[in-house]
Request: fold
Amino acid sequence: MIIESVKLIEYPKQSEDYLSPKFNLITSHNTNSVGKSTYCRLLFYALGYPIPSTENLKFEKVKTELIVMDGEKEFSIMRDSNILSVKTKDSSFSKAYNLPNEHNAFLSFLFEVSNPLISKNLLGLMYIDQEKGWTLINRGKVIGGIRFSIDELISALKGTNCEDLFAKRNALEESVEKYQSLLQMNSIKEEYYENNNNLNLLSLSDDLHRRMATLQLAIQETKKDIGDIASVIKQDTTFFSYIESMNLYVRNGDELIKITKDNIENSCSVEYLKAQKAILEARLNKLNSEKIELQKEIESVEIIPDLLGENKVVDTEKKINYVLSSINIDIENIKIVLANVKEELDLVKKQIRDRLRHENEYIKQVYNLFVEYAKELNVEKTISPKEDYIFTDNLKCRTGANFQKLIIAYKIAVLKVVESVINKKLIFVMDSPKAKELDDNNTKQIMSFLKAKLSENQVLIASIYSEDELFTSFDKIIMLNEQAIEKR
Reply:
C-alpha cells in the first residue's frame, strides 16, 4: 500500500502533500511543536483509526482525503467525522463505512485480510508514536486506547483459536489494573495525611466502609466459585446424559447391562459438587443480607457535606480531605486478591503460549528475523536463545538507545512476517526517533537499517532534524512552518 497524497482541511485552512513511495521526511527547521506528531496522527485518523486529537487541533473538525495505491488499483479515502468513504478512481466501486463500528470491515477491505485479529493489530506494526511507541515492543498501547498484542497476531496468522483465553486474559488484566489503582489511591491518601499532620477524617464511617469493601470482595469471590462449580456440573451432566442416550450395553458373561448415567463410575461426583454449590449459595445469601444491613447502618451514621451548595463555602483543603476520607478499603485483603488474580493471569498466559507454540511456524520466523536484525543493530545480547522470547515480559533493557533499537528490530521482523502472509506491503511511520537517547552513531545505524530493510515500503519519519542530521537522504521532504494544516 502506498499513500500518494494527503489532503487535510480545517476550514478555512487546507494543505495537500504528495508523498514519495519510498523515504519521506516530515520536518520543521529544528523547531518543536509545529505539527509533526499531529501530521503523523492525522495519517492514521484518515484511515479510520480512533486516534486522539492533539492539544491544538480537534480531529473531528478535520476533513481528510488520502489517495492510496494498491498495486494497479487507486482509491480515494475520505473521512468526515465518523463517515469514511472509499471509491475507486474510475468510480466503479464506492462504499461508506460508519465509524467506529465498521472500521474492521474497512481494514479487511483495504488490506484484504479476513481475520480481525490481524487487521486490528496492524497499527502496532505501521506506527511508532512519539510517546507510547518507544515503550511498546510486543504488547501494550500503540496510541490512545488502541492496543497491540503479539499473542493475538501470532494466533491469527496460524489460525489458532485462542479467543476464549484472550478474553479471560483481558478481563484479568483489567482486574489487576483496578486493584493496583486502589492500592495507589490508598498510598496517595496515606501520603497526604502524613504530609498534613494526620488531619482528622471528615467521614465518621471509616470502619463501616472498610467492612463494606471486605464484604463486596467476599461476595465477588463467592459468586465466582459458584459459577465455576455450576460450569463443571453442567459439563458433567451433559456428557453422561449423552452417553446414556446412545443406548450402549456392556456384556458381563451372558448378561447385557445397559449403560446409564447412574451406573457409570465417575471420579467427579456430581452430588458432591451440588452439595458444595448449595453451601456456597447459602453463604452468598448470608453475605448479601449482611451487605443490606451494613448499607442501612452507613446511611444512618454518615453525614455527606453539600460541597456544591450555593450558600456554602468549603475550602479546597476540606474538599480534598473529604474525597480522601471516602477511600476506605481493606488493604491487606486487596493485596491478597491482587496476588490471586496475578497468579491466575500467569496461568492463563502460560495456557495461551502453550496453545500458540503447537506447530506454529510463525513464532520461529519472527524470532529468527528478530535475532538477525538485532545483530545488525548490535543489541542481540539482550535476546534469550528461546524462540518464545518474542512473547516475553522480561526485557533486560527497558530504556535508552539499546531498547529503542530492540523495538525497531522487533517491529520490522513482525512486519516482514505479516507482509509475507497477507501479501501486501505496509507503510511505516516513525515519530521523533532522535528525540530519545540516540547519538549520531546510533541514528546513522538505525536509518541505514530502515533503508535496507524497508526498501520496498513507504516510510515516513517525523523529526525536527534535517537530512544531514539524520545521516540519510530522503526522496521527499515536507517542511512544516507553523502547523500541520497550512498552505505549503
Q: What stands out?
A: The CA atoms of residues 11 and 369 lie 46 Å apart.
